[in-house]
Amino acid sequence: MTDNRIFLPRFGAVCGIVLALSIGVPGAVEAFTGETAFTSAVIGLGTAFGAPAVLALHGHQAHASGRFGAFAFAANMLGLGVFTGVAFALNLVIFFGSGPVAPVTALALKAGSLSFVVGSVLFSVTMVRAKVFPVVPSWGYGIGFVLLAVFAVLPDTPVSALVHVACAVVLVWLSRSVWSARPALA
Question: 171: part of which helix (H) or strand (E)?
Answer without folding.
Answer: helix 158-180
